[in-house]
User: Fold this.
Amino acid sequence: DAGITQSPRHKVTETGTPVTLRCHQTENHRYMYWYRQDPGHGLRLIHYSYGVKDTDKGEVSDGYSVSRSKTEDFLLTLESATSSQTSVYFCAISESRRETQYFGPGTRLLVL
Amino acid sequence: ELKVEQNPLFLSMQEGKNYTIYCNYSTTSDRLYWYRQDPGKSLESLFVLLSNGAVKQEGRLMASLDTKARLSTLHITAAVHDLSATYFCAVGVRAGGTSYGKLTFGQGTILTVHP
Assistant:
């Protein structure tokens, strides 16, 4: 398995609170991604990073921000969580933009 | 905007039978991936297809790509219970002659194999 960890693995929070999810990799891959998975939608890209401090928006970026200050860490922040952000969040990594993306174990987030 | 559609979305099979999952996409792309996901688990990479006519096989699964038709298929041969899972195709976004890291996923096909 690719060396990807996500923390926390489960989180319950209340509407309006800030939440930060962490993705950590030990593969030294340049590209990192955040997806959300919801029933009937497959996976949708939130943001991705193509290097330290280099990030770009994905399909569903509204309400989310990201940061990458080190190669190994990619943080996803919900500034003010809403119930519509209840989801399973997956981090992925790839060596280049054409290489296979490998996925982390996921974080289940429930916003009450 | 790239759209990816899989069909069927639900597939119930008997062990020993063959079947095919289809993945259609709407705009030009230069790579297509197939993933498997078991309930409550992460996604596992199965195949990456990078050129027209590409065919990859692993065990009872075979994937192919027709870029002209914008279609990929995942063929299951002599299904066994262990193949029960959700299967996703994902298509790489390409624009202006550049391949981007962004992937667009299909909705997923939930496969159940019965004895």
In short: Chain A touches chain B at residues 31, 33, 40-45, 48, 50, 58-59, 90, 94, 97-98, 100-106 (CB under 8 Å).
